[in-house]
Design brief:
The chain is of the alpha/beta class. It is about 45% helix and about 10% strand. It is built from twelve helices and eight strands. It has an eight-stranded parallel beta sheet.
Length: about 325
Amino acid sequence: MQVNWQGVYPAISTQFHNDGSINFEANARMLNQLIDDGIDGIIALGTVGENASLTATEKREFLQQTVKTVAGRIPVITGCTENSAAAAIDFIKAAELIGADGVMLLPAVVYRGTEREVLVHYQTVARATRLPIMIYNNPVSYGVDITLEMTAILAEEPNIVAIKESTTDTRRITELQSRFGNRFQIFCGVDDIALESVLLGATGWISGLTNVFPRESVTLFQLALQGRISEAREIYRWFMPLLRLDTIPTLVQCIKLAEQLLERGSENVRLPRLALEGTERQYVERTVQQALAQRPDLAKYGIDITVKVPEQHA
């Protein structure tokens, strides 16, 4: 199965009205803006998208609206966060019909599986769909490390084609490449090791703060690919205080508040999350203000932002 998932993929937020209902209009506006800013693809319904706080119907409605808005301009990868393989299969079958391009699959949540149980979860889901699958390896948040030995078994599933690597250990990227060559597309899944990951050979970056500063993210990624390291460092050093916001438990609230401060979205979240207040809120506001005051002039780097055109249907 040929998949060309490469580049900068924001894990998009799910925008809500003040009453907690999904604001589809705001999501469409935000998504079109991100595409115009040069992103290469998106992850819908991931952690930043508050997947676990949405009903089954809402997930399908959100994905349907997202696919419609994207209109074939970029790949749409949907997160799949379910308690069982059966529930994951139900969602992925719906995602197939809706037109998603692929799935970012987590181990079963709530119950922390053994290695054998996690492997069976991935195998069962992969064999029930034709969609390409990205393994989401995040032992820091979910308590399960999909090891090299486990990955070797999952490599036998032809439609498991990519890995979002979020161990925070950049050595894993080299280990994956040494053992599996080009078998998997490897995405950096942790914002504050993005540059290091690309320099080590990651082909993509799944990012939270790209929602807020997409052009800076695309420019950083392209500079790294082109080997323009000193220039990439300039942006990375400016970006780092913001990227740190993606690595803390309140990352969703931080990112959505930053979106609001940049007038790209709203900070509204769903329970169990609550909007930031007090010193936490002040820290995000101060970090964003400092970033805006020192924002780099991207024009000097000469990175072309590619305009994506919607698919034409007869």
